[in-house]
Every structure is written in C-alpha cells, then in structure tokens.
Amino acid sequence: MLRLITVIFTLLIPAFSYAQSGSLDTQYRAFLENEMWSKAKAAGVSRGTFDRALAGKKLNQKIPGLVTPGSSGTPQKIRQAEFSQPSNYFNERNLGSIVATGRGLLNQNATTIKAIERKYGVPGRILIAIWGRESGFGRVTIPHDAFEVLGTKAFMSTRPELFQGELIAGLQMVERGLATPSQMKSSWAGALGQPQFLPSSYLKYAVDIDGNGKADIWNSTADTLGSIGAYLNKFGWQAGRDWGFEVTLPSAISCAQEGPDNRKTFAEWTRLGVKRVNGKPFPSAEMNKLGSILMPAGRFGPAFIVTPNFYVIKEYNESDLYALFVGHAGDRIQYGSAAFNAGWRKTDAMLRSDIASMQRNLERMGMDVGGADGLPGFKTRRSIGDWESAHQRQPTCFPSNDLIRSIK
C-alpha cells in the first residue's frame, strides 16, 4: 500500500467521547455528523456530496487492525510476511507470474512507456513491476467501498487522524467530479485503482497521460503508469541509476552496518571487498556515487548495495521487501535476470506485538530501533546485531523467538 501522505486534521472532539454511550454504529453516525461534516465543509465539500458518499455507510469491523475508539496501541495478533517469513514475499509462483505477464505488457505499451520515461525519468520496468504488484496489472478485483473503509478507519484505526484526512480527500475527489462514489472501490487500506493510490495521493500525483482530460487510474493503462512515474519522480527518482545490486559481503563487514545513513561510495565498498554476485564490476557511472547495505533478513537472506532509488520505491510502500520485490521483478522483466543468488533461510514466525516488546527493550538500552512498531526495519535489524555482538553472539541482525526471550 502507498505510504500515507495526507493532511493531518486536529480532532475537534476526542474519539473517546464517542465510546462512552450507545452502540458503536450510533457512535459512528454521531462521529460522522458532529466531526467529519464540519471538516468536510471547511475543505470545500458540499452537503450533497457528503450525503451521497456516506449516507447509509456502516462500520465494517472486518477490516484488519481496528481498535476500540479512544484506545491506543498495536493490535495484538497481526502476522505479515514483512516480519515473519521474508521468503514468502518472493514466492516464485507469484513473482514468476508478474514477470512473465510484465514482459508482454512492457512491449505492448512500449510507446507510452518511453514517453513516461522521458517525462519522469523512471524506467518502464519499475512502472510495470509496481503495477503488477499493486493490482495484478489491473486484473485484480478491488471490491471494497472506499467510503466505508475510510470512514471506519477514521473512527477506529490506530491512526484515526490520518484516515480522517484520506476520507476528506476522497470526498474532495467526488466534489471535483474526478470520481463518483460508486467508482471509489478500494483495498482494506482505502487505496484506489490500479496503482493503489490513497485519495490524497491521487489528488497530488495522478496525471492524465492519454489526453482525455481526466486522470483515470481505474481504466487507463497510460494514466496508471504515468501516475506511478509522477509519484516516484516527485520523491526524487534519479534518472539513469539502478535501484541496487546483489552482493557478497566479506566477514569483516558486519550486518549492523546496514542502512542509508551508513552510505559509502561504490568505490569504497569495492575496496572493502564487496562484490557483485554475478562477478561483474559495478557500473563505472556508479563508482563515485553513494550506496547502502541492505540485508532485509539479516544473515538469513541475500545482501545488497542499494542506491537512493531503492528508498524512493519505499516512498510507495514502506516495506524493504516490497521495494526489493519491485526492483528484482523489474530486472527480470527487462533483462531476464535470474532469481537471487543467495536463498532465504527459514526464520521464525513471530507476532508483531512480540517484536514491538523486544524493540522497547532495546530502546531502554539506548538503541535507536526506528520506533517500537513491531516491524524489523533496518534500525531494528542493526540494533539486534549490535546487541548480539555485545553479548558475544554471532550477529544475525534479524529477530527470532530466542532473541525476543533474551533481549530483556
């Protein structure tokens, strides 16, 4: 899902006030009327649009990650590949299907893609890979009512103010004639159309490439690919650079050196003994430019030196594994590259809440884990590596159930 990019609205009435009486549905209707309508009106939304979009909408408590209004904290039972089994993210059946279909679509849309590349500097293989990952090239049914999803999450998510902003942005789309309420189908997270843009991202980045006067991310391939390109361009895509390279790291380089704040030039990494797994030298144009170590599964998976473009892909989705999937799939789509040289070793299945508890313990030791959110990003991974080194363990830089029990 796209990174949440939205205007944060200050709550006029604290959410906990709705949790004090009546059924949740009654509280929800009061929340929409007493809080969201005033915000929508201030944002230029008419009463007619507000009613057309939200009339009759009820809470959908099947949406993952909800909390009781007014409470805080991380939902306890969440399991995701991003923090349990990284190998699941690179299931060859799914990856191979995207690659095979993507190759055909890259050729089929070559003229449009070349125009988008010239305008935004983003390679077509990256556009195609994101399109495939987000919506199966527009073939995946997106069944949920966006206003039901956004309204529910505005009332019951752990970040209600963010989703209140997205709800307002969705209403503005309808107000401006950019979509009808019936067109506003979304994922569980409220993301729309083939590129899975949140409403605020649609308003900021969606573009009309096919020239019909509207940025149609639901039906137009050109607008979908162009909007992805515009988004990545806005976040700083560096034209002419790749996203990264799979490498082997000498034992003298600790996995705890991972991260964009530990960047070195490719020439410096080369002098330290870092090599591409295919035996080729790094491109000469990269040698004086900066790259960072990426080890999304610590010592349990492949290692990479990535360019700043990798972190631009992460602006689309905050997961390291997502960005790696996109870059790798794009390479295979355009170049016919093989699977990663180093495999993914099996890692423990872990609850996000347990990882968050371990992160809080590391924070109490003075380590920067990037926030106790239950997601093992690079700051958490290298903090684990530092803890392991300090306790005479071979650094793995990845959580396990043993580490969760040991890091107290």
UniProtKB/TrEMBL annotation:
<dbReference type="InterPro" id="IPR011970">
    <property type="entry name" value="MltB_2"/>
</dbReference>
<dbReference type="InterPro" id="IPR023346">
    <property type="entry name" value="Lysozyme-like_dom_sf"/>
</dbReference>
<feature type="signal peptide">
    <location>
        <begin position="1"/>
        <end position="19"/>
    </location>
</feature>
<dbReference type="InterPro" id="IPR043426">
    <property type="entry name" value="MltB-like"/>
</dbReference>
<dbReference type="Pfam" id="PF13406">
    <property type="entry name" value="SLT_2"/>
</dbReference>
<keyword id="KW-0732">Signal</keyword>
<protein>
    <submittedName>
        <fullName>Lytic murein transglycosylase</fullName>
    </submittedName>
</protein>
<dbReference type="InterPro" id="IPR031304">
    <property type="entry name" value="SLT_2"/>
</dbReference>
<feature type="domain" description="Transglycosylase SLT">
    <location>
        <begin position="35"/>
        <end position="331"/>
    </location>
</feature>
